[in-house]
Amino acid sequence: MLESSISLREAFNFYPWLLTTHVLFTSWFAGLIIMMDLRLAGIGNLSTPFSQTQKRLFPWQMATMGLSSLTGLLLFYGDPMRFYPSFYFWLKLTLMALAGVNAVVFHMTVYEQALSRIEAKLTEARSWVSWDFSGVVPFEARVAGFLSLVLWASVIITGRMIAYSALVPQWWLDLGLNN
Amino acid sequence: MDLLPFFQWMGSIPLSTYVLGHTWPAPIVQVIHLVAVAVFVGALIVVDMRLLGRGFTARPLADVARDAQPWLIGAFILLFITGLPSLTSTALKQYYSPFFWWKMEALLLGVIFTFTVRRKIIQSDEARLGSVWPKVVGIMSIAIWTSVTIGARLIGLMG
């Protein structure tokens, strides 16, 4: 048991404020991600080109993700044994990893190709330019957008569910992580 | 005016007894409420950022605001619907929580501000707004709704 971990948890009202800050930063981060994903999925923010929702929101998404992660890490550090046996905590981390993989794969495939086509001024660039400006988004991009929406919503859901440590599958409880 | 009898009544309606008598309604309602918070914050913040000269600056303010509007309104309706059972099933806890009243006062202020001052600004011709008012409105919007979030989260944590 690290002493600073215990004092962090027991500091007067610090833990509730830390959790509140985490919720606040996470809502900003998720909100910014959702606004970009709605555009990518072709269902929202259609008057803004996708490339702009991506480029212009990216620094803010990274900043709020950093703040959200930092407060999340502190929450974990202050009470690790609350999270270690938690079904929803591990599920949440897995979903976050999947959301990250989805974003990276989209960038390295559909998005990179589209951007390089524009730079190379290839004839296919016309279709990229048109989907950037119109609501007609290619199938692969829509899939990435919907996947991201579903994954990040699930991250929020599982994050809230950590409080319900009894509402988990029996096989998880049988693992005996609480002991 | 003492609202205690009203809160006692809310705690006794069938909706409340149903939520309290079952395991899953409360968490399901809470997680939907939270996802709606994220959509609401997103729809709010892209416009507030635009007012502050950040984010979707290549598009006219009114276009950005028009795109965000259905998500803002839709999320707000969802927040209201999911907020009701959460409120009635824990009515007395809410009544005695200073943070609940903090949240409700900030919420009232937020709704009035968003649908009057902010609405007028985001629908205006940008060229005639100058550079100061949009920034003031953007910062006030973020501040008010942030205080709603903070109050809301503290109800469950500090009573």
What is this structure, in a nutshell?
The complex is a heterodimer of chains A (179) and B (159). By secondary structure, chain A is mostly helical.
Structure characterization notes:
The complex is a heterodimer of chains A (179) and B (159). Chain A contains 8 helices and no strands. With 179 residues, chain A is mainly alpha-helical. Chain B has 159 residues and is mainly α. Chain B has one domain. In chain B, 82% of the residues lie in helices and 0% in strands. In chain B, helix 2 crosses helix 4. Chain B starts with a helix and ends with a helix.
Number of strands of chain B: 0
Order of helices and strands of chain B: HHHHHHH
| Span of the ends, CA to CA of chain B | 22 Å
Please, how many domains of chain B? 1
Uncertain runs of chain B: none
What percentage of the residues of chain A does DSSP assign to strands (E)?
under 5%
Query: What's the total number of strands of chain A?
Result: 0
Structural class label of chain B:
mainly alpha
Q: Provide the succession of SSEs of chain A.
A: HHHHHHHH
Radius of gyration of chain B: 18 Å
